[in-house]
């Protein structure tokens, strides 16, 4: 009998297949890595796939965020570092 995949397993497999590093949510101001999805206990309908991008200096809490995978956003983040 074939095992049924959970939503978390489906999302994780898609992110890994596409070379993405996690989820981010601009509305909820949160993010999670691909191997630790939804530590808050839920994925929201506003969560988006993304990659690690550098934090601006004023962040101070960590070295990166998960954000959109587009060259313009990554370039702008790197300019702030």
Describe this structure in words.
With 81 residues, this protein is of the alpha+beta class. It has one domain (7-80). The protein has helices spanning 7-17, 71-80; strands at 22-25, 30-33, 48-54, 64-67.
Can you give me a brief rundown of this structure?
The protein contains 2 helices and 4 strands; from the N terminus they run H-E-E-E-E-H. The chain is of the alpha+beta class and 81 residues long.
Number of domains: 1
Low-confidence stretches: none
Strand percentage, roughly? 15-25%
Main β-sheet, in a few words? 4 strands, antiparallel
The ordered string of helix (H) and strand (E) elements is HEEEEH
Cα distance spanning the termini: 51 Å
Class from secondary-structure proportions: alpha+beta
pLDDT averaged residue by residue: 82
The global form is elongated
Query: What radius of gyration results from the CA coordinates?
Result: 14 Å
Helix content: 25-40%
Main-sheet strand order equals 2-1-3-4
Number of E-state strands: 4
The total count of helices amounts to: 2
Give the oligomeric state: single chain
Index terms:
2 helices, 26% helix, four-stranded antiparallel beta sheet, 81 residues, single chain, alpha+beta, elongated
Task: Give the topology, please.
Layout: H1 7-17, E1 22-25, E2 30-33, E3 48-54, E4 64-67, H2 71-80
Antiparallel strand pairs: 1-2, 1-3, 3-4
């Amino acid at each position: 009998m074939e095992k049924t995949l959970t939503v978390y397993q489906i999302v994780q497999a898609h992110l890994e297949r596409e070379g993405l590093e996690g989820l981010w949510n601009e509305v909820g101001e949160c993010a999670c890595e691909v191997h630790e999805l939804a530590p808050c206990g839920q994925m929201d309908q506003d969560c988006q796939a993304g990659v690690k991008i550098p934090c601006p200096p004023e962040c101070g809490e960590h070295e990166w965020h998960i954000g959109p995978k587009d060259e313009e956003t990554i370039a702008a983040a790197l300019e702030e570092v």
